[in-house]
Structure formats: structure tokens, C-alpha cells
Amino acid sequence: QVQLQESGPGLVRPSETLSLTCAISNGSISNYHWAWIRQPPGRGLEWIGYVSYTGDTSYNPSLKSRVTISIGTSRNQFSLKLTSVTAADTAVYFCARAITGTSAYDIWGQGTMVTVS
Amino acid sequence: QSALIQPASVSGSPGQSITISCTGTSHDVGLYKYVAWIQHHPGRAPKLMIYDVNNRPSGVSNRFSGSKSGNTASLTISGLQADDEADYYCTSFTNIGTYVFGIGTKVTVL
């Protein structure tokens, strides 16, 4: 059973960089897209972007100038970096797997809360 | 990209059927078959219920079904059960190669 687990600081200072990692257990990175989605308090889900197993990326236009999603060198994890954060970036951050060529975001992490303050 | 439009809330009694709509544009929902529905119980990992408009992942009850007409996709839950009470989000691929989520619908089982 493939599992995803987010990790990273729960508190980030304004103007600094938010960095999160998603560890992939019991699965291969191949043939999937690896995505980050967030949920601000009291609000809905927001798609941040993904990295494919080939290294190609796609980002939400509203975040594109500040976001980098990449696959780790060990290829059993991927990461999110969001620069110049503000209070508006406070959210629960989820990592997820999507089957390439479909809309199937089929595996999700539990999520990790990040507060910018 | 603008969030897809969903009703804020939908409710029904146990055993009834409900339908949640998801309205986008000709640049997303109306353009592709890549529409999915996500169930989210707060505090838990979100769960994929429907993908590519009307496909159910293994293990998802056949009480959940999806459809699309024009720029609007729909999720129908039949035989409503207490555990169906959750937030539901649609998501669609877009013409610029990104995904966009709906604003979310809170389903209440009366």
C-alpha cells in the first residue's frame, strides 16, 4: 500500500521560504505526477502544482513566481518550496499522487499545518 | 484561473439521493474528460471518489457516480449514509495544463 507523509516546519516567518517534503513509502515514483495541494483555515482546497516522474512541472499561475516542486535525488520523496511567504500562505499542506494521463489524485498524505507568523 | 462553482451545501435524509454540481468553463470542465471528485472529512486525508468524469477507483462504493454535460459536472450519491457527511470538491484539468478545484460543498445527512 503506497503511503505519503508530509514533513517540515510548522511555523515560518513572513518573507522567508516554506519548505516541505513528502516521503513516498512502498511505491515507485515512475508513471505518476506528484502534487501539492493546500487548504487555508476555513476555506477550500487550492491546487499548488505538480512534478512528473520525468521532472516536468506545472504550477498554479497565482503562485508560479514563488513555487518550486522537485523530486528528491533518492527518488522516494519530493519537495515544495514557497518563497516570500505571508500570512495568506497559512494552510494545511497536502501532498498527493496523480496517475499520469488521468485526473486520478488517488493517494493523499494526512496533511501538515504550516503557520506564517 | 478561477475556482469551479459548487453549491455551498447540500443535504438529504438517509437513503435519499443527492446531486452536487460543479460548473466551470469551456477552458476546463467543458474541454476535457479530466474531472474528479474528492471527499474530505476534516482532519483526515482526502479521498478520491470519481475520476475522469465517471470512473470509480477500486474500493469506492457504487453509490457514487459522476457525469458531465457541457461546462457542468455532477456527483450523485445514492442511498445516502451517515458516513457520507463530508466536504466534496470537484477538480478539473485546464487548457493551460494546470488543475483547478471547486469551492467545495458541505454534504449534511439529516
- Radius of gyration of chain A (CA) equals 13 Å
The counted number of beta strands of chain B is: 9
> What string gives the helices and strands of chain B in order?
EEEEEEEEE
Structural class of chain A: mainly beta
Word description of this protein:
The complex is a heterodimer of chains A (117) and B (110). Chain A has no helices and 11 strands. Chain A is mainly β and 117 residues long. In chain A, a hairpin with a 4-residue loop joins strand 5 and strand 6 (57-59). Chain B has 110 residues and is an all-beta fold. Chain B has strands at 9-12, 18-23, 35-40, 47-50, 64-69, 72-77, 86-93, 99-101, 105-109. In chain B, the strands form 2 sheets. In chain B, strands 1, 3, 4, 7, 8 and 9 form a 6-stranded mixed beta sheet that branches. Chain B is globular and about 40 Å long. Chain B starts with 8 loop residues before the first strand and ends with a strand. Classes of the chains: A mainly beta (117), B mainly beta (110). The A-B interface holds A 35, 37, 44-47, 49-50, 58-62, 94, 96, 99, 102-106, 108-111 and B 1, 3, 34-36, 38, 40, 44-48, 51-52, 55, 57, 87, 89, 91-93, 96-104.
Brief characterization of the structure:
Chain A is mainly β.
Supply the key terms.
heterodimer; A: 117 residues; mainly beta; seven-stranded mixed sheet; four-stranded antiparallel sheet; 11 strands; 0% helix; 53% strand; B: 110 residues; six-stranded mixed sheet; three-stranded antiparallel sheet
Topology:
The complex is a heterodimer of chains A (117) and B (110).
Chain A: E1 3-7, E2 11-12, E3 18-25, E4 32-39, E5 46-52, E6 57-59, E7 67-71, E8 77-82, E9 91-99, E10 105-108, E11 112-116
Parallel strand pairs in A: 2-11
Antiparallel strand pairs in A: 1-3, 3-8, 4-5, 4-9, 5-6, 7-8, 9-10, 9-11
Chain B: E1 9-12, E2 18-23, E3 35-40, E4 47-50, E5 64-69, E6 72-77, E7 86-93, E8 99-101, E9 105-109
